[in-house]
TrEMBL record:
Source organism of this protein record: Aegilops tauschii subsp. strangulata (Goatgrass)
Protein name (record): Endoglucanase
Keywords: Carbohydrate metabolism, Cellulose degradation, Glycosidase, Hydrolase, Polysaccharide degradation
Pfam families the UniProt entry points to: Glyco_hydro_9
Lineage: Eukaryota, Viridiplantae, Streptophyta, Embryophyta, Tracheophyta
Top-tier EC class: hydrolase
Length: 218
């Protein structure tokens, strides 16, 4: 059963590599896991986390890499994929835009988020439609929602900092959970996300080599 899941996961990891062209990439290098549809970053950060996690698993199993058909790839290929995708999100992209609010000098100022976009006023509690006035304004959000990752760019690396267009500026729980997981997985030294050595309990994928033979005697 473990080998079955191992093989399935290996195939998914192969699909992330540019050699196999399972997914397109923007000119800036962002993988299009949702095939060019809006809000791509929530998929990218979770893929970066899984790639880092699988590389930790292989390292814990004393396996230097994995096969994609007849081709062998080292675990560093997975970590490089995860790093480059996260670097794109944090600002290494054609627009030099950080898609994480509050990170760097250039990040979205009109995030599609009710709490961030409605100014605080004592005694005033806008109803469901009462927030539309601030949703539609072109002014920057009065509150900076630090650490929130927005939906992201389009398939041409373009981005519109427009609060009303959630396809660019909406943060999601799924996206930000993946963001935190990916950043943790890529931080620090040694085992990456496997700091508690949880993979040490995983049985080896391949049998241990036999012991050396006894000294030969005539």
């Amino acid at each position: 059963m473990l080998r079955t899941y191992h093989n399935q996961t290996s195939t998914i990891m192969c699909s992330y590599l540019p050699d196999f062209r399972s997914f397109n990439r923007t000119k800036g290098g962002l993988i299009q896991l949702n095939h060019g549809q809006p809000q791509p970053l929530q998929y990218v950060v979770n893929a970066a986390f899984l790639a880092s996690l699988f590389s930790d698993y292989l390292e814990a199993a004393d396996t230097p890499g994995w096969y994609c058909g007849p081709h062998f790839y080292s675990i560093e290929v997975l970590r490089s994929f995860a790093r480059t995708q996260m670097e794109y999100i944090l600002g290494k992209n054609p627009l030099k835009m950080s898609y994480v609010v509050g990170h760097g000098k250039h990040y979205p100022k009109r995030v599609h988020h009710r709490g961030a976009s409605i100014p605080k006023k004592k005694g005033v509690h806008p109803g469901c439609k009462g927030g539309w006035t601030w949703r539609d304004t072109k002014k920057p959000n009065p509150h900076i929602i630090v650490g929130a990752m927005v939906a992201g760019p389009d398939r041409h690396d373009g981005f519109k900092d427009v609060r009303r267009n959630r396809n660019y500026t909406e943060p999601t729980l799924a996206g930000n959970a993946g963001l935190v997981a990916a950043l943790v997985a890529l931080s620090g030294e040694g085992h990456g996300v496997d700091k508690n050595t949880m993979f040490s309990a995983v049985p080896p994928m391949f049998p241990s080599p036999p012991p050396p033979p006894a000294p030969w005697k005539p």
